[in-house]
Amino acid sequence: MVKLTVDLVEGAMQYTNPLKDRELDLRGYKVPAIENLGSTLDQFDCIDFTDNEIRKLDNFPLLKRLKALIVTSNKVIRIGEDIVSSLPNLETLILTDNNIAELKDLDPLVPLSKLTFLSLVRCPVTLKMNYRLYVIGRLPQLRFLDFKRITLAERKQARSFVKHLAPVTKTDTISDINNSKSAGVKTFVPGAPVGKKTTDENTDNVALSKPLEKTSSSEQPLPREFPQATLHPGVKRVIMSGGNSQDLNAIQDAIKRAKTMDEVERLHHMLSSGQYAGFAAHWHKQQQSQQQQ
C-alpha cells in the first residue's frame, strides 16, 4: 500500500481544470490516509483523491485556498471533527461511493459555513430514513445535495424536522477553534518559517464565528467533478476529448434539469471523463424538440 509521501505529493499532476481552478491530482494511488499535504503550500483550489483507500477524512493542514475536495470511491467511514479549522473555505465536498453509514457521522460538517455542494451518492447513509431532511436541516447553507438542487419546500420541512433533534455537540466548535488560537495553540501553516509564530494575515475565518445564515435565492453554477489526469503507475490513463465552454454550460444545465438519479449519474460520468465535446448542439436540439411537442 502506497503512503502519501512528500515526494508523491510534489510529483503528482497539477493543472488548471475547466473551472479555471488550480487542481492537484492524487487519483488512483491507493493511499490509506491523508498526510503530508503541507508540502502543497496551500497553492490549490481543488484536490482530487478519487480511487484511494482513505478511511477517515482528517489530518489536513490549514488550507485556506482549498474550495473543492473530491474523495470519490474511497472507504471513508468518519469525518474529522476539526475539519473546519483546516478547511475553513471548503465549498464542494464529493464523497460519492464511500462507507459513511450513520447520520450523526455527518455532524462534523455543520461548522463549514461555506459548504454549498455535497455528494453522498452510493453511501449507506443515504438509505437512512429522513436522510435528506436531516442533512438539509443540519447544513442549511447547502444548495445541492447528491447532485439535486435543494428546494424551498425541502428547506421548510427540514427546519421543522431538526427542531425535534438534539443540538450538535462537538468537542471542536468554532469558538473552541478561536479560543485555541488565542491560547497560543500551534497550528501548522504551509509556507510559514519553521520555529516562528504565525498569525492570520486576513479575516477569512471571521465568518465562521457567525451563525449559519440562510442562503440567498440566487442560483450558483453546479459544482462538478473534474477530469482525470495522471494516475498511479500501472493504472490506465483516461484520454479526454473535452469540449468548449458552451458544452460545459450545456451539460451543467442538463444536470440541473435531470429528473432521475440515473440520468444525473450518466451526465456526471460524461463530465468527469471529459467525453462531452459537442454536447451543447445535442442539448439545444433536444430542448427545441420538447418545446415543439
Automatic annotation (TrEMBL):
An annotated GO cellular component of this protein is: U2 snRNP
The record's section on PROSITE patterns has:
LRR
A Pfam family (short name) is LRR_9
GO molecular-function annotation terms?
U2 snRNA binding
One GO term under biological process is:
mRNA splicing, via spliceosome
What subcellular compartments does it reside in? Answer: Nucleus
Give the stretches traversing the membrane.
none
Is the keyword Repeat assigned to this protein? yes
Query: Where is this protein primarily located?
Result: nucleus
Key words, A-Z:
Leucine-rich repeat, Nucleus, Repeat
Keyword flag Translocase: no
Q: Which family does it belong to?
A: Belongs to the U2 small nuclear ribonucleoprotein A family.
Protein's name according to its UniProt entry: U2-associated snrnp a' protein
Q: Which organism is it from?
A: Rodentolepis nana
The organism's lineage? Eukaryota, Metazoa, Spiralia, Lophotrochozoa, Platyhelminthes
